[in-house]
Design a protein that fits this description.
Shape: globular
Radius of gyration: 30 Å
Distance between the termini: 48 Å
Oligomer: single chain
Number of strands: 9
Number of helices: 19
Length: 535
Amino acid sequence: MEVTPVDWYIHIFMQPSIPVIPPRRSLAFFASLAMLMVVVSYLFILLLATACVYLPWLVITNVANFQTLALFVAGVIVAASMLWSLVPRRDKFATPGLPLERVSHGRLFAELDGIADALREPLPREVYLIGEPNAWVADRGGLMGFGSRRVMGLGLPLLGALNISQFRAILAHEFAHYYGGDTKLGPWLHRTQMAMIRTFQNMGSVGKAMRVALMQVLYVVVFGILKWYWLLFLRAINFVSRRQEFRADELACIVAGPQPLVSGLRIVHGASIAWPAYWNTEVAPMLKSGFLPSIAGGFAQFLSAPAIAKQVERAIEKEMREGKTEPYDSHPPLRDRVAAAEALPNQSQPDDTQSAWSLLEDGGAAELAFLEALNPEMPKNALKRVSWEEQGSAVLIPSWTSFVSEYAPLLQGITAGNLAESTGKVPEIASQIRDPKGMLLTPEQRVERARSLLSTAFGLALVKNGWKVHSSPGEFHLDQGDEELDPHTLMLQISDGIISKEAWATKCKKLGIEGLPLAIAPEHAAAKQEPLPFG
């Protein structure tokens, strides 16, 4: 008998009894407060616009001259600007990523079904794979929330970083926003914020036309009142938002358990810190060279690399120690969310430590489709699938060869043994480094490129002398036997005087590389490209 994804989910995850969800009447008060702020915002701007016309009209009926006439004209212009800003605009929802379909990803939708049933909420109409270390739900489209539809975004980085239990808890948190009605408030709050932003933008435009002194006074006063109210509005709705986040965490703990949520929240925080560095230093160079490794799998490797894991854990612990609530924060600090979750009764749930990425039936195909969805002009089959272990031979060495070949004349006479002495040539080399296409290097960047040239040439010389490249997300070194070297780190240590010339010469002699030349013959077959970083 074939086991369907739903059968699998019921067997692994669903409990015999539906979770008992205690009511929180205070949430109704907070929701009412948010809606009150929406209504007050529109009334406030309407009254302010009326005052901008009525008060100058009272003045002009008593004292009619050029100045009062200018004041009245300014009031009409400012009022019209504010009223035009209040006109609702239809929400244009731009596709944020790759649409995920039930027929292709049964296990993922089985998870969604289970959580939706536990909270007695319908599924989102659309689920997207997005390129952020985040997950979200919303009601989008329509006008002022009418005619909108439920949509959900699931971050590709989170699927790589979390296990299934943790991912389930994060999904439950997002579904809890549906349960609490937060997403129903969302369109109203979003439209109100956009109306306020348009008001400021339009006010900025009309402010340039205020030439007469009284016109400028009216503009400054009205702008100041609007700014004061805007800050009050933000403080109020973000206060409500923080309460909603605590409630969503509570519901996630009931559905998926406190421990998966706590560990998931910590990982999400760390992933948001690490993802930009991972993408820029690991993934982007590979894509630029026409290769596609496992993005989600590589991110998991990146987070587990000792040096990266230490930095991320240090950042998380700092947030846990020092994080505090600010009036304009939409989310409580991580420390408060963890403390609130740990204080809840422990709901025993099955623990599934498989990677959340396994919920997608064919992760590799999904990643390729995701990139093609975000880059519709990218030719089909433009990227070649490779493993991260192939990075050295497929990407790094060709890039280094191209870089070093281009500047071979500048490296004449430099060997591994006299590399320390050759750092004195860095300014001379820097002056002859070309600017990348579309970029003008600063003197500091030019010096950094010159140092990169020396370290890259040294690394390439080692590779040609039999050293092996070890390159995986978050880790890089060259090795031969038991010896490991990172040319880039060594170059920095030599330049900064951490490694003396004598110590370097001794090390080179020990390794038998003192006479290794850094200059190589130009290889015309190598395509010219920007050098890829070590690591």
